[in-house]
Write a structure and sequence with these properties.
It contains 9 helices and 25 strands. By secondary structure, the chain is an alpha/beta fold.
Length: about 475
């Protein structure tokens, strides 16, 4: 009964806000200005903070119930931590009637239909700068938090673990930093996690893939290390890991993901052969492994992907034949293979590419085709075939390996020179190798909430004007 009641609660939110979750695995990029903001340590936000509303709220104010009082405390403390609100979205965040605040939605409480409580906050596209505060943990009934395209910085407070009903969390296109926000791992109701276009770094915690989350969107951060081996434990339908610094192989456990529909590994530092398990998720319709360091042939399992619509394997070091069994997949309409070392292509592929299949095949090793690699370039790779059974995963980042190749050989310190031996000074200098500047890109659209804000309890059709 509690599970049913929870989904009825979420349903009430969606009566006011029709959500359409659009995860972009698109290549479209636009410039976006980078705005420097202060970074906060965990100790700055979670310690030495008094979260008791009775001590923080003016006792002369009257509230319709204690939960609204807590919400008032949380939102007012958060407003104090906002440095800039250029669109004046929080301009009417005044007084005890928090359900009238712009972007704040109230519904009947899940456990008490006689009272209202704050169930959603949506400040998408507000361009607000500031930080999240521990007091947001007082919003115990919050089901939706959307903060796409603002300038919030710092870290996610530990008190977020109190948000046991939080269903959707969208922190995308902000300036959050530090390691993966571990408080979200404790949220029992979380189904949609979108933290793309931030400054998070370090490894992804394996616990993320043990959660019952439908969408994991972490692209365009600074995550590194290997993708957790237990990725296949996740019931997610959408996983976007692109534009980070992941290394190693794609986990073979991906073949166990029963609901996977869209997955992108694009523009990382992944290595090894594409695993046969990649073609096993039967509902997969978008697969993007472009801009990595994959070797060897296309997995035979790809020919079983009956629902695949978009398949991108471009900008790798793949070799061998592009088989008709892949090109002939009935749902496939976009197949991108350019910038590899393929040297043979099936007749059906040629036929479909002239018909309805969008197929980009330049910069390969196809004989007789225009815009292909030089013979010397092709020979340097094709004369050294890859054995996927033995190659395994390179243990280190291929970029680091490339830099190590350029370093001068290590020379052990010699014995003290013989007095009669003239001293020789080397004129060789170690080249200074600067890390490449990451591309500046703007995020794809946020998870759209039509008519929200302000329809959930708000009296404004647009942010209140400043006086």
């Amino acid at each position: 009964m509690q599970t049913l009641a929870f989904f009825l609660y979420i349903g009430l939110l969606f009566i006011f806000s029709v959500s359409s979750f659009s995860i972009a695995v698109t290549k479209i990029q636009y410039p976006v200005s980078r705005r420097g903001l202060i970074a906060l340590r965990q100790s700055d936000t979670d310690q030495d903070q008094d979260l008791d509303p009775d001590k923080l709220v003016d006792p002369s104010l009257k509230f319709e119930n204690p939960r609204i009082k807590k919400a008032y405390c949380a939102l007012q403390e958060w407003k104090k931590a906002m440095i800039s609100d250029p669109l004046n979205m929080t301009g009417n965040w005044v007084g005890p009637n928090v359900c009238s605040y712009y972007g704040v939605g109230c519904v009947q409480a899940l456990d008490d239909e006689q009272i209202r409580t704050v169930a959603a906050v949506d400040l998408n596209f507000g361009d607000i700068s500031g930080q999240l505060v521990p007091h947001l943990g007082l919003l115990a009934d919050l089901g939706i938090l959307h903060l796409h395209s603002n300038r919030f910085c710092g870290i996610v407070p530990k008190t977020f673990s109190n948000l046991e009903l939080l269903f959707e969390l969208d922190l995308s296109n902000n300036r959050f930093s530090g390691l993966f926000p571990t408080p979200v791992l404790t949220l029992p109701s979380l189904r949609f996690l979108d933290i793309r276009f931030n400054e998070f770094e370090g490894p992804l915690p394996p616990a993320l893939f043990d959660k019952d989350v439908d969408a994991i969107v972490v692209n365009n951060n600074r995550f590194s290390s290997h993708i957790p081996k237990n990725m296949g434990n996740s019931p997610a339908s959408t996983v976007v890991l692109s534009n980070n610094k992941f290394s190693g192989c794609i986990p073979r456990s991906i073949g166990r993901m029963p609901n996977l529909e869209q997955v992108s590994f694009s523009n990382n530092r992944l290595t090894g052969c594409l695993p046969e398990e990649l073609g096993m998720p039967k509902f997969l319709n978008v697969l993007d492994v472009s801009k990595n360091y994959f070797l060897g042939p296309l997995p035979k399992s790809l020919e079983r992907m009956e629902m695949i619509e978009r398949l991108d394997v471009s900008s790798n070091h793949l070799t061998g034949k592009v088989h008709d069994s892949v090109c002939g997949l009935s749902a496939l309409w976009n197949f991108t293979i350019f910038d590899n070392y393929f040297n043979e292509i099936g007749g059906e592929c040629e036929k479909r590419s002239r018909d309805k299949l969008i197929m980009q095949d330049r910069d390969n090793c196809f004989s007789g085709k225009p815009n292909q690699r030089s013979q010397q370039d092709c020979s340097s790779v094709l004369t050294r075939p890859v054995d996927c059974k033995t190659i395994g995963c390179q243990p280190r980042d291929p970029v680091i390996l490339e830099l190590n190749k350029r370093k001068p050989p290590l020379i052990h310190s010699p014995s003290p020179p013989d007095p009669q031996t003239p001293k020789v000074t080397s004129t060789h200098k170690t080249p200074q190798l600067a890390s490449p500047t990451p591309p500046v890109v703007s995020p794809p659209p946020a998870r759209a909430i039509k008519n929200f804000p302000p329809k959930i309890g708000s009296q404004h059709s647009s942010p209140p004007r400043g006086h």
